[in-house]
């Protein structure tokens, strides 16, 4: 194998990502997911302008209009402190998206370099890192997260840390398998031969060629991370009031649920639709990239 | 097979030790001194000092860890800060209720997930397939606590079909109490012929079990579908078709048999999800199991209970995984040879 075809192979990973992207839109379910995500991002970005009652979205209470059913003034009703549910949901979108992006960043920053080092050097370092990763994966992840927040004390930051800890090993595994398949290729060997340092090879030559699977994995994980944050919030272990958080809102509404159903129903629906959208898009990307599945799209 | 087993059991020992180390570190990270937390805000300094030395908190950290391991080996997980009862007793009291719920949920998930996945693989890219894919993705996206609440409002408030929560009707429980044999109400009532209690226990079980199963139904459906898709393209299936074997037999007998190993792994995975999924379900349905025990502990900062449950569930989880791996190694020789 010569250097030209080597380079071809190393860049083909990233090109597949872009070639796959237009196939994604052929799948109606994925397009639906993209649509929901677009609305969500607009809502999060322009929350102060879109929310009918931005102050209430930020947490200001309005005790005169407690527990009002959905109506003309409040499209989705109000909660037990009289706050407009729609505004709270729109502001909650900010928290959910920011928090899940933060977790993805934490996970990538910890998991990817470890996988890179493990796969590149192999041997004892590889064993050490991977056995540790396996050990973390041996824990039920939600339970580990709950135990961590419970001992650190409930707050959004601690919840994010608690979700990161059981999650990074997946990225280490993924990265390691990518590196192992790449490091034997000739462009890496040539770089070694002309005296390029290990670190430079890892971060300048190997890492960029491994990014697309990491991006795909991150997209697919976004939904689950949002669900995890909402679940910790529901148990009172995440975002603290008065910040708007979907999980906390569902939990608050529980007390009134049998008579004032709208608080929990709408905030839970926001979680569901968001996670669903991320899962649909993640599924679409994965199918578009998997050549075994792709022929079915092209046939249609 | 022996080498595989030995290797797995050695690894199990390492994992368990790591598990102890992690829960130990976590329980020491808790803000506040365990002794003063245990004695409450009105304790005298001397009392706290005495308990500290009794608990070994004045020793170096590694000695404390050894003490912790020794306690664990005797099944001692410490005492609850709230009730002052041993954590292990609390766990054993609440375990049967959770297991009854989880086993019912796994059963429901396999019962629905496998046929649904197989059918959707056979009808690939038809409306049935798309609907079942949307169903399984939607399932995986549902927050279980929300689904449980929606189920309550539909089936309890609107339709009045099932009770809102609990394990058995209070009146039925008083007049026809379930004799404790296994701790599973349904089985105990069945064995003792207590039909009234059986009916009540079953109707209380349906909503929590189905909502707990939802996530797993989606996962098992997807897994069965994708393995079946591969299996159905194999030559022996074509041969079977050529030999004139009916589609139904090909799907459910010839095909499914070879798609079962990944489904087993998935069922193990589902069980793991249920260990924590049941926290939310039990909280909402007032189900007196481990989940309720733990969420009460979370709300009252009862650390020994949280750590004890984490420890025990993690051990349970590791053992379930080991069991599933062994089962698959028995079913599929390629795995134990690699």
**How would you describe the shape of chain B?**
globular
Summed over residues and divided by their number, the pLDDT of chain A gives a mean of: 85
Structural class of chain A: mainly alpha
The tally of domains of chain A stands at 1
Please give the share of residues in helix of chain B.
Answer: over 70%
Ends apart, CA distance between termini of chain A: 36 Å
Which architecture name of chain A does CATH use? Answer: Orthogonal Bundle
Could you explain the architecture of this structure?
The complex is a heterodimer of chains A (about 300) and B (about 350). With about 300 residues, chain A is mainly alpha-helical. Chain A has a single domain (about 1-55, about 75-300), classed as MetI-like (MetI-like fold, Orthogonal Bundle). Chain A has helices at about 5-25, 30-45, 45-50, 55-60, 85-120, 125-135, 140-150, 155-185, 185-195, 200-205, 210-235, 245-255, 260-290, 290-300. In chain A, helix 1 packs antiparallel against helix 13 (about 260-290), helix 5 (about 85-120) runs antiparallel to helix 6 (about 125-135) and helix 5 packs across helix 11 (about 210-235). The radius of gyration of chain A is 23 Å and the shape is elongated. With about 350 residues, chain B is an all-alpha fold. Chain B has helices spanning about 1-30, 35-40, 45-55, 60-75, 85-120, 125-140, 145-160, 170-175, 185-190, 195-230, 235-240, 245-285, 290-300, 305-330, 335. In chain B, helix 1 runs antiparallel to helix 14, helix 9 (about 185-190) crosses helix 10 and helix 12 (about 245-285) packs parallel to helix 13. Chain B is globular and about 85 Å long. Chain B starts with a helix and ends with a helix. Classes of the chains: A mainly alpha (about 300), B mainly alpha (about 350).
